[in-house]
Amino acid sequence: MTDTRERITAALLSLLLVVSLVAITGSGLAGTAVATDGIDAQSLETDTAAPTIDPAIEDANGTTEVYLTFDQYDGALSADRERAIAQLKDHAESSQATAKRQLGARSGVEVINSYWITNTVRASIDTTSVTASELATIDGVRSITAKPEYRVPDTAARPAAEPDSDEFTYGLEQINATETWDEFDATGEDVKVAVLDTGFDVSHPDLDLYTEDEDDPTYPGGWVEIGPDGEPVEGSEPHDTQSHGTHVGGTIGAAAPDDNETPAYGVAPDVDLQHALVLPGGSSANSDPIAGFEYVIEEMDTDVVSMSFGAGCGPFGPVYQDAWIPAIQNANDVGVVAVTSAGNSGEGCVGSPANIYDSFSIGASNEAGTIADFSSGGTVAADNWEEPDPEWPDEWVKPDVSAPGADVLSAVPGGGHERYSGTSMAAPHVSGAIALMLSANDDLSDEEIESTLEETAWKPADAPDEKDVRYGHGIIDVRAAVAEVGGAALEYELGDVDRDESLTVRDVRLTQQYLQDKTPEPFSEDLGDLNRDGEVTTTDLNLLQRKVLGSLDEGEIAVTGFDVPDNVDKGEPLEVTVDLTNPGEEGAVQKVSLQLSDDPAEPGDGETVATEVVDMAPEGVDEPIGSPSETTITFEVDTDDLRSGAYAVTVTTEDDEATEEFTYLASQFDVSSLDAPDEANSGENVTINATVENVGNVEDTQSVEYRFGDLDETLLEESVTLAPGAETTVSFAADTENVSAGTYEHGVFTDDDAATGNITILEPFFDVEIADAPDRLEPGDAYTVTAGVENTGDAPGTQRVTYDVVRERTEVAVVDSKAGTESVRAALDDRNVDGDRDDLADAADELSATLQGELDDSYNVSPLGADELLASVDAYDVFVVNDFGDADVEAFLDTLADDQAVVFLENWGADSTAITDRSDVTGDPAAVDIADSGSPPVELDITADHALFDGIADEGESVEIHDATFADRAWFDDYSGDAIADVGAGSPDGAAVGVGQDGDHVLLASFGRTQFVADGDFTDDANAILANAVTYVDDPLEASVERTTTEVSLDPGESSTVEFSAVLEDLDPELEWAHAVESEDDAVRTPFALGAQLGTVAGTVSDDTTGSPVANATVELERDDETYVGVTDADGTYAVEDVPAGEYTLTVAATGYEAVTDTVTVLENETVTKHVELRATAATMSGQVTASDDGTPVANVTVAAENDDGEVFEATTDANGTYALTDVSAGTYVVDVADTPPGYRPEKIVTVAPGEHVTGVDFEIERTPGTIDGYVTNAAGVPIADATVADADGGAFSVTTDENGSYEIDGLAPGRYALRAAADGYDDSTIEFVDVEPGATATANLTLGTYFEVSDLEAPETATQGETIVVNATITNTGDRTDTRTAFYFPPGTDFGTDVVDYRPELSETVTLDGGESTTVEFTYEIPEDDEPGEYEHGVSADEVASTTITIEESEAGEPEPAYFAVSDVDGPAAANAGDAITVDATITNTGDEADEQDVYLFWNVTSPALETDEQSPADRRESVGIDSAATVALEGGESAVVSLTHEIDADTDPGSYRYSVSTLQDLATDGLTVEAADDATILPIRADGSADPIRG
């Protein structure tokens, strides 16, 4: 198929376009969803025309979604899928990058998703903030179109499929799928087919999805749900949101059902089925089929994509959608076949994407082999698209092919099967067929697949020969297609048409029947085509007859020529040609194999490297379906994995083989003898030696590399030139100074080989711990700090250990408008910035973590939302501001204290503008500029030495800041402080690092974190500069002690103790301070307090009466303005610690107790014990008691509370239901409702703890339930058992009557209930309302139906045999409603027992009567002549029976009927061979009254008219016709007998169908059988001259 790449800039679809799931209603499924808008197809040219804009966008008001499309990839895509996808993705990323940045910087625009398969960006725009014309100025945009809404119409219910006795559906048989399974063993194995649809019911017993992990319920690799943002829904498990997707998937790959009722319906039962849920519910405004399409291609590595949906052909006419053009073309280029359904709009319209020239669109056939009326088709003109592909023709016909789509049986969710109709059902038949083709030959391209299906498709005889708008090329024949592509050799021998693995006369007979236009079963046309000319003819029959006789030279494939090059250079493929000849008289179908052996002396030990199935005709066939009797095939073998040397190449057929040799010319640099230490101390130089030998046969030069750690990156390299057989030793010296401890893989590598090993780097690690240090000091104190140092590393070392007094903690806030603001985070979750969204959302969090990692533990770094900045100023010492957001910058700067400082960040874009915000408020710096031009990395040029660059760079040196995708940067000008570094990308732009004169702030332009330069993009040097800025602006400490350092040397495992002596000088008492000891590896701090010595007050608090501990009592020490507080625990103990020495007022208080006040003196560094007893106060409890059903107060209820000592306190509720228990002593109580009034019961128990006044101890009590009982009877008062009595309103209850018709409903809340009774055979009763009082029983008797009474029976008292009598009776409806009954007359002889069931339907009359109404029924009855005379009972019945007696008298006798011999039940064999004798049975019955004797005859192949004539008597006529055999039968009147008659079939009787007849003189009956040729029949071969030779079977 044409696969060109011209950019299409046509405007896309408006919001009104609709995508349809292509299945119709009624017996099938209907559905619609909006298709993805058209986007640019691939381009070979650059078009600078202005972007096209969808008018729907210009007319939109508010928020809408749009597609922005860009130029398509114009290069040649790689044959490797992964590389080709990378090419498309790289092109999309580069062409969309600037646009995404510009979109992200615009107000009212939010990027949602982007596509590499069509190079398009999907975005949401607020048209009140941005216009389409403004978007058209975005770099690279070619068109802007509205994203349409996706939806499907309601679908009609579909009946479940009836059980089907067929083994296969008509769909499988129509496309010859089952023959493909049998003949080619092709069932779809190892082929991946992805369905884009509504979802998939993986629990269906016939279905499964491909998975790479059987234990993963989300089916990785086989299932994906695409969310509204075009991204996979994490954790989604397979499910169908409708039923369409399950039905489509079942047609492609369902296993045969095991219910013995449902036929097999899956085309490729062993396919690896995949599913992408892209149309939830069959419709969604946010559905994204294009995202699903590119996902299954890239992530699922699918081979075929089946799409049963489309756009257009609705009320707005056809749709010509550009979006799918590059998608389908690019999919084809990477080896994916895209199957589309043509639509269900009938002739004249084809939906998109099926109408695209490059699409493979499918029409729908029916079981009759014609095209369904609904199937779409038409002629499509290229100029319907604004810029069609220039290599397309002016117009073309769609569909391409057709497949079964009407009344198709497949799976539906829940385990069932239903029949749907639509091209949605046809497309999966084709997708499954393609899976069969690929399983037979996995080297097929999309063009080969589609063209083969088109060439082998078939049409009825009355259909046009050329491609037409109904069939396309025709209905697919997958067996013929698989045979055409030659994916496998024949499983059976040519001529074995019945596939029983033997050639017999039966195969000849079947072929003869086929040539006689019969339908022999089984019969393989392909196996019957012995001369391989594509059809079964008399020539094939003649060949088969000779083959059966053993006189045929059978087909074979001989190797008559084998061309192999003498030498093959390294990297070049091995190309060999093989000449093949078929010397036989029939065709030959075989697999030809190519083997490669690296030992020419043993060519048979080689590995098969290539195969090809060859279908060869015998000599003389002009148009073979495969190859002629002489042909040449070519094999091309990749040699990349070969080593140099001689090889044997062998070509093998089933009949012949040939071997040749060639030499592979290549160098082979093998690496051996790797010599390197197993361990090395960090910082040590390590020497690595290895031997490199060229074991190849060509001199070469290669780069020999030494790699360390990441073996993909080269650390050192050396160029080595070696002749064949030469070797050398290479040596590398590696510095381990910057390598941390650990075990690393390293080695020496050539282009051909590698030698690797492990090396462990050892380094010391000096752990430090503070063993002893004072926890309280006053200025002027002399003290000693003792620390332990241990080398826990693996290498000896010497380090400096230092003691200092430091601030215990500096609080650092990282300020960002995104941090801590949940609403902003939620909004960012909806944005799509190609993977940076999470970085942006967590920018402050990640920057905080990075900064914390750079700073020591004396700094506590945390993110702070800009909206929380002003309220949190006092909580922090240093602010690192990435973005102020909407914060009041001027108010913030005015609020800062002298000991607080700020680091301001800035970068390109709107995400980091802190320096700009400072400039706007203070005018310092005067200007800030940004840029993203040039190429990364962005670098800092150091213009002055400063503490910010300590350990990083010196003046005149450069530092890389970041190497993000874009060279984003910022700089400032006219700054009052010191500018100490410039920024640029290739050349300096301006100052980027500035330090304030007072040291209270630092400006770091180009260090801001944005969505385009995330935290992870910054270098370690940049992060170190940022950390140095924080430590620089942090308030310098006044020298509290002189910093003390000592040097310590330790071996591994050795430890030492160091002691530091110091004198504490003045410190700021408002700050917190700590002792700090640190080595080069470790640091430890322990805080100390400034101030006088402290003491502790401790003791217990208890109850003065019971002695019980009092928990949660407050103990307060107070003097002047100092207060120290403690609280007792569960045991009543307390301890108030760190109290400065002196005299205090002690106050102890607890809930429910009187407070106690005393004095206590606190001693330095001692604990003073103070026990206190408290006196409990009286407690009260109160609450309310209400009814649970309506909340009304309940009066006169007694509420009781009892404690552990047995004390009981009671109170009675007043009219408001309230109560109060007073003078309750302290303790734990159980509170309950005591004396419950009639009609109520308590609902719960409450436990009340001791205390003061406790309120809200409320109770809800339930009313005592009531009961309803009664009987259910019919209108006659008869009790009805098993009747149902139910709540007619809310369904609160339903009971069944017992055998006496009684019922009872208990447990009913008081109130009014509506009762209704129902029973089989009765209409439901009228509703009866019953009021139920608390604790009472209400009675309600219910009546069902009506009763029809029978009275006034009038009938004669006597009648004679054969007389007609008239009987009358009155029917009365005694009920109160209109009803209908059938009144019956029971004639004389009826059994009038308890159950009158022997009635005749013709003696009945249907009566409809209002309540109380009567009518008369009348019956006429003829007394049978054979009724015995006597007295009988007869009568009339409705709901009761009224009867009387009648006397039947004998009548005069009549004349007897003459004998008549009738013939019936003729039974003979269904088939027999010529020459056989058959036996035929028949039943002869004398239907008259008189006895008689007659002859019974058997006639062979004689019809009834031949025995009927007016000219001869019946006996004479039978004699003249020719009686085959006869028997004589004597029968009484009414008697029957079975006779057996025989006939011998003539041996020369022609095969076919014959009739035989059994006859008496008065009657005749016939039957038939099939005569087959005798076992020793002669088969006459058909010769060209008309003569024949017999073949005896």
Automatic annotation (TrEMBL):
Record key words, sorted: Carboxypeptidase, Hydrolase, Protease, Serine protease
Listed GO MF terms: carbohydrate binding; carboxypeptidase activity; hydrolase activity, hydrolyzing O-glycosyl compounds; serine-type endopeptidase activity
InterPro entries: Carb-bd-like_fold (IPR013784), Dockerin_1_rpt (IPR002105), Dockerin_dom (IPR016134), Dockerin_dom_sf (IPR036439), EF_Hand_1_Ca_BS (IPR018247), Ig-like_fold (IPR013783), Peptidase_S8/S53_dom (IPR000209), Peptidase_S8/S53_dom_sf (IPR036852)
UniProt xrefs under PANTHER family: CEREVISIN-RELATED, PEPTIDASE S8
Name of the protein this chain belongs to: Carboxypeptidase regulatory-like domain-containing protein
A single GO BP: proteolysis
Species whose genome carries this gene: Natrinema salaciae
Active-site annotation: 197 (charge relay system), 244 (charge relay system), 424 (charge relay system)
